[in-house]
Amino acid sequence: xxxxxxxxxxxxxxxxxxxxxxxxxxxxxxxxxxxxxxxxxxxxxxxxxxxxxxxxxxxxxxxxxxxxxxxxxxxxxxxxxxxxxxxxxxxxxxxxxxxxxxxxxxxxxxxxxxxxxxxxxxxxxxxxxxxxxxxxxxxxxxxxxxxxxxxxxxxxxxxxxxxxxxxxxxxxxxxxxxxxxxxxxxxxxxxxxxxxxxxxxxxxxxxxxxxxxxxxxxxxxxxxxxxxxxxxxxxxxxxxxxxxxxxxxxxxxxxxxxxxxxxxxxxxxx
Length: 270
Ligand SMILES: NC(=O)C1=CN([C@@H]2O[C@H](COP(=O)(O)OP(=O)(O)OC[C@H]3O[C@@H](n4cnc5c(N)ncnc54)[C@H](OP(=O)(O)O)[C@@H]3O)[C@@H](O)[C@H]2O)C=CC1
Ligand SMILES: O=C(O)[C@@H]1CCC=N1
Known about the structure:
The structure is a single chain. The protein is of the alpha/beta class and 270 residues long. Helix content is 54%, strand content 13%. An 8-stranded mixed β-sheet has the order 3-2-1-4-5-6-7-8, with helices on both faces. α7 crosses α12 and α8 packs across α9 (198-218). The longest helix has 21 residues, at 198-218. It starts with a strand and ends with a helix. It binds NADPH dihydro-nicotinamide-adenine-dinucleotide phosphate and (2S)-3,4-dihydro-2H-pyrrole-2-carboxylic acid. NADPH dihydro-nicotinamide-adenine-dinucleotide phosphate binds at residues 8-14, 35-39, 42, 71-74, 76, 79-80, 83, 97-99, 120-123, 174. It is found in: Cytoplasm. Residues 4-100 form the Pyrroline-5-carboxylate reductase catalytic N-terminal domain. It catalyses: L-proline + NAD(+) = (S)-1-pyrroline-5-carboxylate + NADH + 2 H(+); L-proline + NADP(+) = (S)-1-pyrroline-5-carboxylate + NADPH + 2 H(+).
C-alpha cells in the first residue's frame, strides 16, 4: 500500500473517503494528509474526527505522498494544479474525483507524463455503500490501479471502466443517489397528502426503497420481473404504473441521465 497519501480539497467527498480508509485500517491515520484552499476550521475538524494530518501548506501535504487525491470542484482544478505542480513528480499517482475532468487534461496541466487515475464515487461512500467508477489514464501501472481500487473499496464497490464511459458512470452513479432522493421526496409528499404522519411515512418509504434495492441484489430477477410480481392484473400497482407511463417518467429518467452525462462532458471541456 502507499506509505503516504494526500487529499487536496477537504469537502464532503474527501471526508467520506478519509473516513472509509481510516475505518478500514488499510492506512494508519498518520499516513493521510489533507489540505484545502483556506478553511482552517475544516482542517481542524477533520484532524479531530479522524486523527489524520492536516496542513494549510501544500508542500507539507504533498511532499513524500505517493498518491495525491484531487477533491476540489472542477472550476478550481486549474488553480489547484498550478499550486501543487512544484511538488509533483513522475513517481506519484494523481487520483482525481472531479466530474468531467479528463486524465490527460490533468497530466497536461502538470506538464509531465505522470499517472492519473480518475474516480467517480458517490455520497453513499459516507456510510460504506458507495459505488465508484475508476479509470486509468496513460502511464498508470497495474499496481497503481489495484492500490486505488483497494482504497475506494473501503467505501463500497469499485467498477473499472474505459475513460469515455466515465460520463455515463457519473450520470448514473455519481449523481444517481440524488434521483432516488427526488423520488422519495415525491413519495413523502404524496403519503402526507394521503393522510400518513411523517414518522410513519418515513418508516414505510425508507424500508420500501431499501427492500427494493436488496431484492435487486439478492435475487437473480431483472427489475422488470420484480415489478411484474407486484403488479396484480386490475390491481393498484397496474394503475400506478399506468399513471407513471402517462407522465412519461421512464423517458424523463433516461433524459435526466443523458443530460447529466452531457453536463459531465461540458465540465471537462470548460
Ligand atoms: N458531492 C458529490 O456527490 C460528488 C462529488 N464529486 C466530485 O468531488 C469533488 C469535490 O466535491 P465536494 O466534496 O462536494 O466539494 P466541496 O465544495 O465540499 O469541497 C471542495 C474542497 O476543495 C477545496 N479547494 C478549492 N480550491 C482549492 C485549491 N486551489 N487548493 C486546495 N483545495 C481547494 C475547498 O477548500 P476551501 O473550503 O478552503 O475553499 C474544499 O475543501 C468535485 O469535483 C465533484 O465533482 C464526485 C462524486 C460525487
Ligand atoms: O453534481 C455534480 O457535479 C457532482 C458529480 C457527481 C455528483 N455530484
